[in-house]
Amino acid sequence: MSAALELRGVGFNYLSRRGPVSALVGVDLTLAPSEFVCLLGPSGGGKSTLLALAAGLLAPTAGQVFAHGRPVPGPGVERGLVLQKHALFPWRTARGNVEFGPRLKGSSAPERRRCAEELLAAVGLPECADRYPSALSEGQRQRVALARALAGEPEILLMDEPFASLDALTRRQMQELLVAVWTQRRPSVLFVTHDVDEALTLGDRVAVLSACPGRILFTRGVPRPRDAAARLAPETAALRAECLSALGA
Amino acid sequence: MPSRFAANDPSPSPSESSRALVSLGSAAAALLVWEAAARSGVYPPHLFPPPSAVLRALVLDARSGELASDLAASGRRWSAGLALGSLCGAAAGLLTGAWRPARLAASPLLHFLRVVPFMMLMPLTLLWFGIGEESKILFAAWGAFFPVWLSTETAVFSVEREYVWAARTLGADGLRLWWEVYVPRSLPGTATGVRLAVSTSMFALAAAEMVGSFDGIAYRAFYCYQLFQSEKMMACIAAVGVCGYVADRIFAAAVRRLLPWQEPA
Ligand SMILES: Nc1ncnc2c1ncn2[C@@H]1O[C@H](COP(=O)(O)OP(=O)(O)O)[C@@H](O)[C@H]1O
Ligand SMILES: [Mg+2]
Q1: What is the pTM of this model?
Q2: pLDDT (tens digit, 9 = 90+) per residue, B192-243?
Q3: In terms of DSSP H, where are the helices of A138-225?
Q4: Is any Cβ of chain A less than 8 angstroms from the Cβ of B172?
Q5: Domains in chain B: boundaries
Q6: Does the distance separating the beta carbons of B165 and A75 come in below 8 Å?
Q7: What's domain B60-258's superfamily in CATH?
Q8: How crowded is the C-beta side of B63, counted as CA atoms within 13 Å?
């Protein structure tokens, strides 16, 4: 089966006033259909850059990004994005945010409304549709952002530390919601985090990025199921230790 | 009893009415000091009239209809100029903010024009456009343009990368991206610019009316100065101040209404 997403020898340089700054070098990464990959890396290691390259928002300065074997020409609804900061358009209500993609695609008003209602219910916020983001809690905003990305029925969800600024309990709930959505809709997920436990809880695989300029240090499969016994198993502990030491912790 | 501690409590709390009392009290105190100083005779009363005399002149002018017709003439020019200048300023700001060639081409010229005091441009305007209504409306528009342009441009510059990214992955590009992200995101900045323009367009209009007009509130003030009618002159100033204050409050309330999504400041 062809990879939903493949980065082949990808490098990226930012242009700054003092010349090019290398953010990523020689990154190889594949994402199979319906696979959940967590990308771990230290702050400033190029995780967000990698995600933007995968989304087609930035063009690699070396190598290439493929989706199903074809080069990615630019961003598109088939690759949905969920970010940590400024996740929602503040000038649109929760409903308006979710309807954004369908509206641009040209679907009719009742159709959009139904779609938004359904998705807001799916993320557990049916009663918040007419609130502006400023009147939502951080966790609620991330739920709406997930619903907005899902409205395009993406094949791939690209998520950049979406739960990083949530409290522990809310984060736990959001992780469960994401797993439920993933189980039901089966998109591929590329999930950026700097939290090892989050990566080991969610991912089929973890990929660990080095400090700047980012290289993939290693990728490892994470055994399932994720029950309490598995979490305490020696293999899991060894993997956690390996990830932590790679992050320099 | 309404809580004093609720940050977003919309009902007027006791502290709010006491704040209004402080504001009104300080204004009343200033008027009293002025009245006392004027009556003490330290300065000739025809140059330094007390507020009570100014109020009398204001009432007389209002009765004769002269005040209303001057205010109406200025108000028409001002609102036309403010609308014209704000629209052009917002459009120019979006253009120079979002499109680099436009910025490179237009910004130096606009900044050059911005720092030329508009009083100095008055003779030129009179030469080119005469003393008709057009030159006065243009002048008010000139005064409105620059703050709106600058604050819109700044707002466009500071549009967060995240919004652009999100919109692009949802299918927005080109003009659509501009309309769906850059325009709404920069509206609060434009509104701040227009709020500044409410006064700067009045300044420019006043300059135009003093030099090339036969009616309007600033013309009237200047005319009264030439006739040594200090009370009447001050009455004109007071009328402009009150109208401007009211216009500013109305505008601020309208912005809160029109941009309900803004975080409470
Ligand atoms: N717009 C930019 N211009 C120049 N350098 C940048 C820019 N954005 C990010 N960088 C640099 O690229 C590196 C990777 O950044 P980023 O992808 O945001 O890392 P992460 O998401 O892992 O924290 C950092 O060292 C950062 O300083
Ligand atoms: Mg980042």
Answers
A1: 0.88
A2: 999 999 999 999 999 999 988 899 999 999 999 999 999 999 999 999 999 9
A3: 138-150, 168-185, 196-202
A4: yes
A5: 60-258
A6: yes
A7: MetI-like (1.10.3720.10)
A8: 6
